[in-house]
Design brief:
Length: about 425
């Protein structure tokens, strides 16, 4: 991290050991793998396999990192200690997630469980789920999928058609889930079904099963859905008479809505650390570009317009990060962060956090792409940094209001000691 951005970040003393551990783990376990697989990570044609899915070599590396990160005590820091996690609150996790994501978009995200790993849904698992599901997921040995979204309903629960009916002591599942992360590699499936239509929030129940045990026996994986991110892991699956025992239920019958919202709130709040980390990554790349790109005999960053754009990027990142820390601190007190149902004010703040992070990150990515420009040489033909923002936004001019030019010049980091901040002659209008 450059001094320009590093000076804006203060890590609480109590978190310094885990932050140091993250840095060491990345340098010793992740970075070497990224260098070994650079030909795939930096080339869109090699990142995906011939069928459009994530290349097996990358999947293997990600799984190895998940397991090793769990052994190092990093992978499941967000989960309660009684199920094998680190017991961290959401406020502390902002610093953890930020540190991991600021390292780029290579293999580093595998250091921490996301929606395809050990999720908060495990908190509601029963004791008999521990050995078969919870422990392997927390240890990074298994991956999972979250079967919620449907092709004709999106994520609107009350339009879901996937049903689970109790017949002769067995639950029979029928339905179609689409736009599912990790649809093709998941060892464990968590599926939200309608079990009691017309009961409002109590209409839904979660089911859990091992995919390999039911492949071709009522569970079938479908087609690939290629995203703008070119992740190669998003797809669909079909349930056609899948039979499960009562023991497959996560939590209790009718508790699915609250479990789902707790998990979704987690993904919303995770945007704080994720977007902060990736924003810092883009700012670093942009500063490097502004210093080294020579235009008309001088660095690109010598132009005042570029300095203003960088200042806006830093301002968006810093203020949004402050909001994330403020909201997560409130959610942790009194906590726990995964508790459901929550007061309406909490839900509103959690949604505001996600909205602000997504919008600010989009603006930062937009400016990063503009400053990098459209022309790139062979060495720069990589997935970074523009892969975090596809398709590329138009390089449009914007009318800036609400701040003086000097404010913008002084708010941004120095691009180089030999590149003074340009000044605007003030005029009265």
């Amino acid at each position: 991290m450059s001094d320009a951005v590093a000076t804006e970040v203060r890590i609480p003393g109590r978190l310094e050991p885990i932050i140091d551990s993250i840095d060491s783990f990345y340098e010793e376990r992740v970075k070497p793998r990224e260098e070994q697989l650079a030909h795939r990570l930096t080339d869109s044609a090699k990142y995906l396999d011939t069928d459009g899915k994530l290349h097996p070599e990358l999947w293997t590396a990600r799984r190895e990192i998940m397991r090793e990160s769990a052994e190092a005590g990093i992978y499941a820091l967000h989960l309660p200690e009684d199920i094998g996690g680190g017991g961290f609150g959401r406020h502390d996790m902002v610093f953890v997630e930020e540190r991991i994501y600021e390292k780029g978009i290579g293999l580093n995200p595998a250091m921490l469980a996301w929606s395809e790993g050990a999720t908060p849904r495990l908190i509601w698992c029963q004791d008999h789920h521990r050995e078969a599901f919870v422990d392997p997921l927390v240890r990074g040995e298994y991956t999972s999928l979250h079967g919620v979204t449907e092709p004709d309903a999106g994520s609107n629960f009350f339009d879901f058609k996937t049903r689970a009916e109790l017949r002769g002591g067995k639950w029979v599942l029928n339905g179609h889930k689409a736009f599912i992360t990790n649809a093709f590699e998941a060892d464990v499936a968590h599926v939200l079904c309608v079990t009691d239509p017309g009961k409002g929030r109590e209409s839904f129940t979660y089911f859990q099963f091992l995919t390999k045990e039911h492949e071709g026996k009522g569970f079938r994986r479908g087609k690939l859905f290629q995203t703008m991110f070119d992740d190669g892991i998003t797809g669909e699956f079909v349930l056609d008479g899948l039979e499960l025992d009562e023991s497959a239920i996560i939590g209790e019958r009718g508790q699915g809505f609250n479990i789902a919202l707790s998990s979704i709130n987690w993904t919303r709040m995770r945007r704080g650390g994720m977007c902060s980390g990736w924003s810092k990554y883009l700012i670093e790349k942009t500063l490097e570009r502004a210093k080294t790109r020579i235009v008309a005999g001088k660095p690109l960053g010598a132009n005042q317009g570029i300095q203003w754009m960088v200042a806006d990027m830093v301002n968006d990142w810093f203020t949004t990060r402050a909001m994330s820390l403020a909201v997560t601190a409130e959610i942790d007190d009194p906590g726990p962060w995964w508790k459901m149902p929550r007061p309406r004010a909490d839900i509103r703040k959690i949604c505001m956090l996600k909205l602000q992070n997504d919008e600010a990150f989009q603006r930062i990515a937009d400016r990063a792409v503009q400053i990098h420009g459209g022309g790139r040489n062979d060495e720069e033909q990589s997935r970074q940094p523009d892969r975090v923002d596809r398709p590329k936004p138009a390089c449009s001019r914007r009318l800036r209001r609400g701040a003086t030019h000097d404010d913008r010049s002084d708010a941004g980091p120095r691009i180089a000691d030999d590149v003074p901040k340009a000044r605007t002659r003030r005029t009265n209008v």
